């Protein structure tokens, strides 16, 4: 680990809002700050595929198999295949414009995990997937249903992150209907970790959309702890479930935690598109 990695402070951004609006205000901190997407990008890739093929052909059986592997198990080879099927960086960028992602820049060299994005854009994508907001009808109802079904089917070992804020937190992994997609990526230059989490959770009986992006963590476990604390804080003060403020954009975690049982991101890394391994 180099000098920069030893002295850098983790960064964190949060965007959250109740799915059905009402009297609860959205929560946000540093939501326009750019981060490497890692594997939360896979939701965007799937949406881009759906928009790419619409009106010309059906999604093939092989593409459906790849999509399940990409979302539920975070399989990178499946993501590589669907990135190409979606039209690469050009096709994915076009989909982002349709979906209202103002500050997401797909990696031009095919290394989709190094796409840069913001918490605000990830929240906008979640809105589209749930048929909310100004881009509610970009994806059809069956398309939205499929994406959400895959996010509900993420394997238990990858159901950490924003799910910690939900009513089901602390139950058996994978037992809840929460929707989630996480991303984890150790940066080659520094050895520090990118840890991201997006999804839908139920808090105090109400559905919330949540996006937490972060980087600069010494270990994946530290990053997970920081992301989960931020997710709880983002909705807690607005629902009465946790009296904790959001941070100013710097990740704060309670020291190096023990590795969460059955939740090791490194166990699912596998090869991404070239130099850096995205989970």
Task: Describe, in plain words, how this protein is organized in 3D.
By secondary structure, the chain is of the alpha+beta class. Helices cover 34% and strands 16% of the residues. It has helices at residues 3-7, 41-53, 61-72, 76-85, 88-99, 119-129, 141-152, 220-239; strands at 11-18, 27-29, 35-36, 116-117, 179-186, 193-203, 206-215. It has a 5-stranded antiparallel beta sheet, sandwiched between helices. A hairpin with a 2-residue loop joins strand 6 and strand 7 (206-215).
In terms of topology, how is this protein built?
Layout: H1 3-7, E1 11-18, E2 27-29, E3 35-36, H2 41-53, H3 61-72, H4 76-85, H5 88-99, E4 116-117, H6 119-129, H7 141-152, E5 179-186, E6 193-203, E7 206-215, H8 220-239
Antiparallel strand pairs: 1-2, 1-7, 3-4, 5-6, 6-7
Helix pairs in contact: 2-4, 2-5, 3-4
